[in-house]
TrEMBL record:
GO terms for biological process: inositol metabolic process; phosphatidylinositol phosphate biosynthetic process; signal transduction; transcription antitermination. This is Inositol-1-monophosphatase. Its EC number is 3.1.3.25. Its cofactor is Mg(2+). It comes from the Bacteria. It is an enzyme of class 3 (hydrolase). It comes from Marinomonas polaris DSM 16579. Belongs to the inositol monophosphatase superfamily. Mg(2+) 2 binds at I93.
Amino acid sequence: MSENYEEWLDFAKALAMKAGEMIVTARENSTFVRDYKMDHELVTSTDIAVDQYICSRIVENYPSHCILSEESSPHMDLGSIGDDVPVWVIDPIDGTVNFAHGHHHVAVSIGLYIGDQRILGVVNAPFLGECFWALKGSGAFCNGKPLAVSSAQELRNALVATGFPYQKTALTPIVERVSRILHHCQDVRRNGSAALDLCWVAAGRLDAYFESVKPWDMAAGALIAEEAGAKVGYYLSNASAWPDVVNGEGLLVSTPQLYADFLALIDVDL
Ligand code: IPD
Ligand code: CA
Ligand code: CA
C-alpha cells in the first residue's frame, strides 16, 4: 500500500467532517436556496458551497490530481486521464431532497480511485453523527468500529434498499423490480441517499441495495461495502459511458450469500 493512501484518507475524512458541519449549519440557520438542474433535479446553494469548499481544498493540496464532481465537473472526460493519476469523486450532498425537507439521511461522499482500483472512500452523515470510511485492503469502519455485512441466508428475511431517478420516464422497469423484491423479500427501503444505502449494506443494516446511479453516488460507498465483505456487481449489462471502477448503472450490492438470488430476481428483461 502506498504511504500516500493513509495521508489521503485522513485528508478526505477532514474534508468530509468540515463539509458536514457546513451542511448542518446551513440547515439550522435555513441559509440555503433551492434551484433545479435540467428543470427537475433539486440542487441547493449548500450543494454548491460544499462542492466549492471540497474541490478548492483538493486543488490546493493535490494540484496534480483530477476531480470528478457532481456539481462542478460532472462531464469530466475520464477516458483521457492516465492510469496512474488519482481521481477524486465528489458528491457534496448525497440526499439533497432529504436535506431540503429536513430529513436526517444526508451524506457527504468522497471517493478516490487510480486506474481500475478504488483506493479510498469516506461517507459522512452529519445529522446521524456517523462517518464511514474504507481504504483498499484495510477493511471498512464507522466511527472507528469495523464493519461487516449481514449473515442473512434467505431472501424472505432480507431487507433491501433502492432508489428512484429524478427522470420519471425511467420509472416503469424499476417499479417492476421493486415489486419482485417485495414479493420475495422481507421489505424495501427508499432512504434517499445512495452513498448511505451502500454503507448500510456494509454495516449489515441492509442485506442488499440496487439502483442505477452516477459515479459520485457510489464511488466511496462501493469500496466501503466491498471492504465490509459485500459483493459489488451489476444487474444490467448495458455498456456504460463510465469506467468500470465508477460505473453505477444497474448496481447490485449485497451480502455474498444472497447475491445470486437477488440477481436472479432483478436481472430480467423489462
Ligand atoms: C440521489 C440520492 C438518491 C438516489 C438518486 C441520487 P443526490 O443523489 O443518492 O438516493 O436515489 O439516484 O441522484 O441527488 O441527492 O445527490
Ligand atoms: Ca448523489
Ligand atoms: Ca448530490
